[in-house]
Design a protein that fits this description.
- The structure is a single chain.
- A hairpin with a 5-residue loop joins strand 1 and strand 2.
- The chain has one domain.
- The chain is mostly helical.
- The longest helix is centred in the C-terminal third of the chain and has 26 residues.
- The protein is built from 2 helices and 2 strands.
Length: about 80
């Protein structure tokens, strides 16, 4: 039996069917590829387009804020 290319903790498919790598996988890889990965743990260091980089960082901040708000509401 062949081993799958990726374990479940390394990637998943989003609603559009695209592969999304987890932060754990990206940390194991060891560097930012510059493609703007959703879970990039490297602050999008190698994203060349400064507008795209700023947009990705802002989007991450918004997502984290929303997740915190949802968790707070669950605990209330």
């Amino acid at each position: 039996m062949k081993k799958p290319l990726f374990d479940e903790d390394e990637m998943y498919f989003n609603d559009s069917g695209l592969v999304v790598f987890t932060a754990d996988y990206l940390l194991k890889r060891g560097y930012c590829c510059g493609n703007g990965c959703l879970h990039c743990p490297y602050e999008y260091k190698n994203v060349v387009d400064l507008r795209k980089k700023a947009q990705l960082l802002e989007q991450r901040k918004t997502n984290e804020k929303n997740a915190s708000e949802i968790n707070r509401q669950k605990n209330d």
